Amino acid sequence: MAERTKQSRKKKSLKNKDHTSTLPVEVLQNILILLSTVDQFYIGLLSTSWKNAFHSLQIRNFDEAIFEKRVENCGIDHNIFTRFVDSCMLKIHMDHVNLKSFRLHMIRYDDNKSASVDRWIQLLPKNSLEILELSLCDPNIIPRRDMIKCGNLKALSLNNVQIIESTLHKILSCCPLIVDLKLVQCHGIQNLLISSLSNLASVIIDNSFPLDMSKVEINSSTIQSYYYNSEVLRDIHTLTCINLISLTLKANFVMAEEKTIENLISRFPLLSILVLDFKIGMSITRISNPMLKTLKIRHVFRSGKIHIHAPILHALEFSLSFTGQTPLKHSIAIDAPELQKIEITIEAFNEIFSTSRFLELRDFLKLFVQKINLNLKINYLQVKWNPNQIPDDYASLPININHLNLYISKKIPRNYEDFLEGLFWSCHPDSLSLRVSMDLCNDSIKNLRAIVKKATNPTLNCCTSSQRKCWRHCLKSCEIMLVNDRKVPSCLGQATGANILGELSSPK
């Protein structure tokens, strides 16, 4: 009897034993880095092994937003996060932890935050740190120029930081091994000059304060990717980067001269990825580069034709609007014999979509030899479709395309059936995605659901003519996915986004 009791106690002891604490510290740390810092701290309370693994972690991510969700009373005492980071950084400094990555994201500001940030940066190990990311809640927090001196730093990211121009240049000169540089909403920089970083590979400048920056000059033979996003694009760039592979320029307004941007694009002999996202003022008429493989253009307000010459271009994404005097078919000319993937996005807002618009859409689609993917965004359309106005010289069969993504925002046209008839006279998709905005009222969504469900009824008799098939016939012959932007309204029950308008999947 005593022997049985002893064995039972032994089994119970083995069952309740924390076997994870016996794992190597490297394994424990691989588990910890998958969690938030506050959860890492809580797990460190389980045993000495977990505690030591936490304190010796070389990767630290301090996120105030996550911290407040996980810790009680943060809504009352906003300094809990500051005290937590203080204790962690002091422990790192005292234990001489070779910290490799430090990320700080703050969402609250008080008078003591600037001093706290300086203190934490000062406690960072200067010889081992490779990644430094500061995302601060207020631009009044200004790091001192003598704080960031990390000789092995490879990635520097500053978000919503007010930093004096000379301070930034001092930091860059003290960190010569930087590979990735990211500046987001940084105030106080008028002239950005980069020339001393011999390992620089990527630069990201995302700034909504365009008046702050008047000049960007980068002289680097190693940089491969450059991303610039601002409210206004002006003639401020001087890029001497002969090995640049990826170039992205985004702006709401373009004040740069046409030749300036065209010359900038043609300057890079190895450029293979080009993204141009200009909403207003774009006046580029020619894009030419012999190594270009991927091209993405957002050309909302058209002012003329864009000529594209790219012998090995593989993928093209092109966005434009019906707004403007230039017809769609005169908006682009492509010389790209290797082009295989094409995605076109057309926006039609506050338009009278008459028969001539459908003719214009069809003529535009005929420009492309390859079958394309078409995104059509519509809002507040007045549809005036009359098939009797179609000229006799037009072919009876529509243009075949791979996929049609139809996005309806704000308001569904009253004569939606006429819109579909004109649309599917223009093009015939192999598959269709119907996406609706949740700004639509519930009655509009119900009506649209009824229209599409009725149209895809396999028992419904529709046209049998091979000359001009109606839109119902087209819906029957393509695969259909119906999705919505946000959560499903209560009037439709607990349906998922994929079946908000009905579970439809018609075989080809």
Short description, anyone?
The chain is α/β, with parallel strands linked by helices. It is built from 13 helices and 24 strands.
Task: Write up this protein.
By secondary structure, the chain is α/β, with parallel strands linked by helices. Helices cover 26% and strands 28% of the residues. It has 13 helices and 24 strands. It has helices spanning 2-16, 25-32, 37-44, 48-55, 64-70, 80-94, 113-123, 165-174, 258-266, 355-365, 416-426, 442-455, 471-476; strands spanning 59-63, 101-105, 131-135, 155-159, 180-184, 191-194, 202-207, 215-219, 225-233, 237-240, 246-254, 273-280, 286-288, 294-299, 306-309, 315-321, 332-335, 341-349, 352-354, 373-379, 382-384, 399-409, 427-436, 479-484. The strands form four sheets. A 16-stranded parallel sheet has the order 1-2-3-4-5-7-9-11-12-14-16-18-20-22-23-24. Strands 6-8-10 form a three-stranded parallel sheet. The longest helix has 15 residues, at 2-16. The chain starts with a helix and ends in a 24-residue tail after the last strand.
Summary tags:
508 residues; alpha/beta; 3-stranded parallel beta sheet; 13 helices; 26% helix; globular
Oligomer: single chain
How does the major sheet shape up? 16 strands, parallel
Helix run count: 13
Report the mean per-residue pLDDT as an integer.
Answer: 78
Report the radius of gyration as a whole number of Å.
30 Å
* Shape category: globular
Share of helical residues: 25-40%
What proportion of the residues form beta strands (DSSP E)?
Answer: 25-35%
Q: Based on helices, strands and strand pairing, what is the structural class?
A: alpha/beta
N-to-C CA distance: 74 Å
Low-confidence stretches: 485-508
What is the β-strand count?
Answer: 24
The strands making up the biggest β-sheet line up spatially as 1-2-3-4-5-7-9-11-12-14-16-18-20-22-23-24
